[in-house]
Design a protein that fits this description.
The protein is α+β, with helices and mostly antiparallel strands and 685 residues long. The chain is 60% helix and 8% strand. Strand 7 and strand 8 (611-616) form a beta hairpin.
């Protein structure tokens, strides 16, 4: 089977190459394919959920009505049976399908270049459908996002695209999933760049939009232009009402914070304290959901029936208040125990209940200047989504696309922004990123850390620095510090061996006694013991960690930890400059590396005056050595963009290869830099 798909991939790549497609056209075509796949996948999972729901809770009414009419013992047992099926399915076939899915997609983007196993889409669809259909208190949007992302990744891997393009296709799949789930193509596209790709400046935004549109078209074709909720006309009664929406935003932020904390407490509880096999834990969660549903059946499933009741202002206020907290507990138990489903619908559910409760009271107290509870329920839905996901733009657009009513924008923006700000103040991480942090994956620092690890001290440190001789008297020390730069000065002996450092803060108290101390103190008396050194082979990530530990702006560079022979200094500002250049170089070279791979026989592309990208046969001195050992950047001032095998240039591309990659005889190296530097390497052959 693998060989079949490999041959099919080669044939597809050959056809695309013969068609002479530009990169942009190629990506648009792939985006259309992903949009179609994701659209049909969304329809399929909705149909599967409905089928399992009807099998689980039989009846002719709505999902909630069928649950209520079911015998009490089946209400308890059905979710447990669902957990008994879902647990082993996820544990043995695709652990990535556990939970709400979006963090796993983000992890694939950050650590795997967008690569997601194709089987994840299948397992996630089945596991989520069973979890939701048997009463699990989760949503279907998260699974649809993960399924769409897995489909996008699988299509990209089929065509063997580089990681930069693969990530874009993952975003296409996520956008298509949201778009198909809510009939909201704009929100889908924005969700992909705001949450999945975490970059509004993404260069490949047009394929993401195309995928979202295609998925929405498919959804419309089969299910009509129906919104996920029946939303009544919104009414903005008075300008004075805006104050209540500020307050609603603050409360939404608090509830969002509570949801995040309870969810991850419950996940930790099941992982640390429930001492049974992992694949059996969903059974415990199912039993708990069944017991809760005996009193609050509204928590079962996605909860759209209850949301619609709240949107029309028909939810009893004290029931709405109780359901906020019961839903938090029920969703946390479902996901914490190992069930599969999303947190999008639960967030909307909590928001609708919160807004219905809040709107009831403000309308009772100020009926002439406030709208009914349904209006507040609608706005609070956006507030909870924004507070939990930290995606305010997506939250605003989703609610706007649900209503198509411009009047809602002002109160919606106020509520969403206040909720996001307050939730961010209470906890730095969103409901998505906190899971990654618990796995020691740091979103905001991940890219920086990866790049810093690729920049070595030998590329950054300076040999022109101020130093102090260990025998210098106090007056000489002061003069060198006053005339020098920085706040730390290395102290060396006659053989230039590092003996310590002197800080400006160490001598500042003695400055007024300079004349008295000049013959009493020498540099050796002023040494600071709290310092560290680095070698030229250390990377800049290590350097920054040491700088942070000692609160230094610079560190001495020694030839080795044994000899301590001082060879230079490395400064934070120089590291920052190197980082900025690396970021710029990565953005340029990633794009150009992909472009050259689409240009067929053209082996040179000039992108700036005097600079080009070229394909070269590796010199004999390169063969058998790693990129790190050759040290191409330092020796020749060029960058390796990708490695291609000579016989299969399109089908076997390693974009931005690892420094440990070993150059082989039949490789073709794609390098970028000054033309004269490239010619030097060519002449080595």
């Amino acid at each position: 089977m693998k060989q079949f798909f490999a041959n099919l991939s080669k044939q597809a790549s050959s056809l695309l190459e013969k068609a002479k497609l530009t990169e942009h056209t190629f990506m648009i075509i792939i985006a259309i394919i992903i949009g179609l796949f994701a659209g049909y996948a969304a329809i399929g999972i909705r149909a599967l959920i409905e089928t399992i729901s009807l099998l689980s809770f039989q009846g002719t009414g709505s999902y909630l009505e069928n649950v209520i009419s079911t015998s009490w013992y089946w209400i308890i047992l059905i979710p447990a049976i669902g957990g008994l099926i879902v647990g082993p399915l996820i544990y043995f076939f695709a652990p990535e399908a556990k939970g709400h899915g979006v963090p796993e997609v983000m992890q694939a983007i950050l650590l795997k270049g967008g690569a997601i196993r194709p089987r994840v889409a299948v397992v996630k669809a089945i596991a989520s459908a069973i979890t939701i259909g048997t009463g699990g208190s989760v949503g279907r949007e998260g699974p649809i996002i993960q399924i769409g992302s897995a489909l996008g990744s699988s299509v990209g891997q089929f065509f063997k695209l580089p990681s930069s393009r693969l990530k874009t296709l993952v975003g296409c799949g996520a956008a298509a999933g949201i778009a198909a789930a809510f009939n909201a193509p704009i929100a889908g596209a924005l969700f992909a760049v705001e949450i999945i790709l975490m970059d509004f400046a993404v260069a490949q935004f047009s394929p993401i939009v195309i995928s979202a549109v295609m998925a929405t078209v498919i959804s419309h074709s089969y299910e009509g232009n129906l919104a996920a909720f029946t939303v009544p006309a919104y009414e903005y009664v008075s300008p004075y009402e805006i104050g209540f929406y500020f307050l609603l935003g603050a409360i939404s932020g608090l509830v969002s914070y509570l949801f995040i904390k309870v969810l991850y407490y419950m996940e930790e509880y099941f992982d640390e304290r429930v001492n049974i096999p992992e694949y059996l834990r969903p059974v415990i969660g199912g039993l708990a959901i069944g017991l809760i549903a005996l009193v609050f059946p509204q928590v079962m499933g996605v909860g759209y029936d209850s949301i619609n009741v709240a949107l029309h202002g028909n939810m009893v206020w004290y029931i709405a208040l109780g359901l906020i907290f019961i839903k938090i507990i029920a969703t946390s138990i479902t996901l914490g125990s190992g069930g599969s489903g999303g947190i999008f619908a639960p967030s909307l559910f909590m928001g609708a209940m919160l807004g219905g409760f809040f709107g009831h009271f403000v309308h009772q107290l100020f009926p002439e200047i406030t709208a009914g509870p349904g209006a507040y329920a609608l706005v609070a839905m956006g507030g909870l989504v924004a507070g939990t996901t930290r995606a305010p733009v997506t939250a605003i657009i989703i609610v706007f696309e649900l209503t198509n009513d411009y009047n809602i924008i002002l109160p919606l923006m106020v509520t969403v922004v206040i909720s996001t700000i307050l939730s961010s103040k209470l906890t730095r991480e969103s409901i998505y990123t906190l899971k990654l942090v618990l796995r020691n994956i740091f979103i905001k620092e991940g890219t920086a850390s990866n790049i810093m690890e690729s920049i070595f001290v030998k590329e950054v440190y300076v040999t022109d620095y101020d130093k102090i001789n260990i025998s210098d008297n106090f007056s000489e020390v002061v003069n060198k510090i006053v005339q020098g730069k920085g706040r730390k000065f290395p102290v060396v002996d006659k053989k230039n061996k590092l003996k310590g450092v002197i800080l400006v803060s160490t001598i500042k108290d003695y400055l007024f006694k300079k004349d008295e101390l000049q013959n009493l103190l020498i540099a050796n008396d002023l040494l600071t013991s709290g310092f560290d050194t680095v070698t030229s082979e250390d990377n800049c990530s290590t350097v920054l960690d040491k700088m942070k530990k000692y609160d230094f702006e610079g560190l001495p560079v020694v030839d080795s930890k044994e000899n301590f022979h001082l060879i230079g200094m490395i400064w934070r500002r120089d590291i920052q400059d190197a980082y900025d250049k690396a970021i710029e170089r990565r953005e340029i070279t990633s794009n150009l590396a992909s472009k050259i791979s689409m240009k067929g026989n053209e082996s040179n592309v000039q992108f700036l005056e005097g600079y080009s990208i070229s394909e070269i046969v590796p010199p004999n001195s390169f063969i058998g050595n790693s990129i790190r050992e050759i040290n191409i950047r330092a020796k020749y001032s060029v960058d390796v963009l990708s490695i291609k095998t000579k016989e299969k240039r399109r089908s076997n591309i390693k974009a931005i290869p690892s420094p440990d990659y070993i150059i082989k005889k039949d490789d073709i190296i794609v390098i970028a830099g000054e033309i004269k530097k490239i010619n030097i390497i060519k002449n080595l052959i």
